[in-house]
Amino acid sequence: MRTVALAHLTTLALDPPAMLRLAARTGYDAVGLRLIRVTPDSPGYPLMDDPALLRATRAAMRETGVAVHDIEFVRLTPETEVAALEPFLAAGAELGARQAIAAPYDPDLGRLADRFGALCDLGARYGIGVVLEFFPWTVVPGPAEAAAVVAAAGRDNGGILVDTLHFDRSGATLDTLRAIPPTRLPFLHLCDAPAARPADTEGLLHQARAERLPPGEGGLDLAGVLAAMPAGIPVSLEVPMTALTREAGPEAVARRVREAARRVLEPLRPDRAGPERPRLRPAT
């Protein structure tokens, strides 16, 4: 069975123990935890610096049976000191995380590849793979550019994180995904959004960080992306819905997102007979 994880951005106001318990109540197999904050006004939960919270997180994992699939969020910048990230990876290993997510914020692509490779080497010491996530507003805007950086780094545990929103907004084609070696695509961030692309970077950032749609409720070609990716890889649902969270709470968001993903992913199960494709837009 495919692992379905809850990405922390979907319920970012919850600390890791609370998120794990919510994930268990709403039908997820795993979570992705944000240990390093992304922006000054959004939270991160530095378990590597908080032994009590790390113990509470491990206790919640034992209580619920929900795993930690990945940890985030490493911004690779000209100032990044990879050695300083060892506590982050050590905490991830203690939680059983399989992947760590890095982001490209260094305009020197050669230096970026070197730092990514060094991070992969550090991750390998802890049994953790490292994926480079591409973003349309960065120097690595799409999957082809991410693949070039990962190839230049040349580490076996280095991969690329495809997010269905960023893939669409990058303007890349499905052939670009098909050209990437399957071993470089260990999991997927799944969400939906309106087909119309924001007009500027501010709009891209707001949509990506605050207002996405559950799978199947927008206009992205989710079926195409899923078909182009390795079959059965874990899927992490990264669907921030800030307005609905304020109105109904994070559990309602997590539950709605999980049920929407079930409708999209169920027809793709290998044990289902026939060529049925998922219906990716609500009936009208």
UniProtKB/TrEMBL annotation:
Keywords: Isomerase. GO terms for molecular function: isomerase activity. Pfam families: AP_endonuc_2. Coiled coil: none annotated. Residues 265-284 are annotated as: Disordered. Signal peptide: none annotated. Transmembrane segments: none annotated. Residues 20-250 form the Xylose isomerase-like TIM barrel domain. It comes from the Bacteria. PANTHER family: BLL3656 PROTEIN, HYDROXYPYRUVATE ISOMERASE. This is Sugar phosphate isomerase/epimerase. It comes from Roseomonas acroporae.
